[in-house]
Amino acid sequence: QLQLVESGGGLVQPGGSLRLSCAASGFTLNYYAITWFRQAPGKEREVVTCISSSGGSTTYADSVKGRFTISRDNAKNTVYLQMNSLKPEDTAVYYCAAALSCQGSMRIWGQGTQVTVSS
User: Fold this and answer.
1) pLDDT level of residue 1 (50, 70, 90 thresholds)
2) Residue 52 and residue 103: Cα distance in Å, rounded?
3) Chain-wide mean pLDDT for the chain?
């Protein structure tokens, strides 16, 4: 079964940091671009960041530029999202998804991990 499993979410104070992981099972992540999405209650899902299959290209939403960093370790079949200087508006369920490119249709989705930024 092809799966993506997110982990690393939790409750953090404003200004804090979290690192999310997106681990693949049942397939090799090397051939896929990975996008992180998030969805806050009552809001539409939005793209946070994407990394190409090689890791050589990344894109970020303006709202997270300079604070979030996406990276990948293909040897571990895992993509990471380092989130620093977290704000209450970053509170959402974070999902990772795999596609053949950052512009392609998402083929495999994770189940999501909750991130809550609150004092």
Assistant:
1) confident
2) 10
3) 96
User: Under a CB-based contact definition with an 8 Å cutoff, are residues 36 and 93 in contact?
Assistant: no
Query: What does the pLDDT look like over 58-114, one tens digit per residue?
Result: 999 999 999 999 999 989 999 999 999 999 999 999 999 999 999 988 889 999 999
Nearest CA among 49, 41, 30 for reference residue 95: 49
Pair of tokens at residue 22: 């997106």
Between CA 14 and CA 57 the distance in angstroms is 29
Return the sign of the alpha-carbon dihedral for residues 19, 86, 53, 97. positive
Contacts of 102 (CB under 8 A, 6+ apart): 33, 35, 50, 51, 52, 57, 59
Determine how β-strand 33-39 pairs with β-strand 18-25.
unpaired
